[in-house]
Write a structure and sequence with these properties.
Blueprint lengths: L2 H7 L13 E9 L4 E11 L2 H4 L8 E11 L2
Antiparallel strand pairs: 1-2, 2-3
Length: 73
């Protein structure tokens, strides 16, 4: 975040360099019938310190869970 942008947003100025953030995930699918199935997916992202040091980021780990139902025509 450039100093001019920081003044407008209220955050501190921050200029990171490059980084890599690893993640791990797992997805499962279950068929209920010939046409209907469901899925569950979980994912964890581990942010590099270069990213988590940003004043806009409140945690170095992010987790997500997705659930869904699919219908096949």
């Amino acid at each position: 975040m450039k100093p001019s942008e920081a003044r407008q947003s209220g955050f501190s100025a921050y200029e990171p360099t490059g980084s890599v953030s690893p993640y791990a995930g797992l997805t499962a699918r279950l068929s209920f019938s010939e046409h209907v199935s469901g899925f569950a997916s979980a994912r964890a992202i581990f942010l590099h310190q270069e990213i988590s040091d940003s004043p806009m980021v409140d945690s170095s780990e992010k987790y997500s869970l997705s659930l869904g139902v699919m219908y096949k025509f």
